[in-house]
Design goal:
There is one protein chain. The protein has about 120 residues and is of the alpha+beta class. The protein has a single domain, classed as Trna Endonuclease, Chain: A, domain 1 (3-Layer(aba) Sandwich). The chain contains 2 helices and 5 strands. The protein has a 5-stranded mixed sheet with strand order 1-2-3-4-5, with helices on both faces. The longest helix is centred in the N-terminal third of the chain and has 19 residues.
């Protein structure tokens, strides 16, 4: 795994720990359906949460959530539909984003954006 992959994996670890601390439960990590992937699938009593994790170095100069483009959102919606087809539920499906910033190898900021977008884009 390259440096970017390691940073992303560390960001996912931080995001997972953060979401568990918020009372969510892990359903799947790095869930795949063909070429589609969801970083974290979490749930609470009322919803299944499709979570995209974005990780950057603090000095990169922009918000990691800017990397959740329209194309990425559409892929996440397709992945959520594939997950639902394999795992039917009566819970509402929501789309969240967690951003993690590192500086000198240390976590300096975690932002949780619940309901960051909807299935319509």
């Amino acid at each position: 795994m390259n440096g970017t992959g390691l940073l992303g994996r560390r960001g996912e670890d931080v995001a997972l720990e953060y979401l568990l601390g918020c009372g969510l439960h892990l359903v799947q990590r790095n869930w795949r359906a063909g070429h589609l992937e969801v970083d974290l699938i979490m749930e609470d009593c009322y919803s299944v949460r499709i979570v995209e994790v974005k990780t950057l170095h603090a000095g990169d100069g922009f918000d990691p959530s800017d990397n959740v483009t329209r194309e990425k959102r559409l892929k996440l919606v397709r992945a959520a539909k594939a997950f639902y087809a394999r795992n039917p539920t009566c819970k509402e499906i929501k789309f969240d984003v967690v951003t993690v910033l590192f500086d000198a190898g240390e976590v300096v900021e975690v932002n949780y954006l619940p309901d960051a977008f909807n299935a319509l884009g």
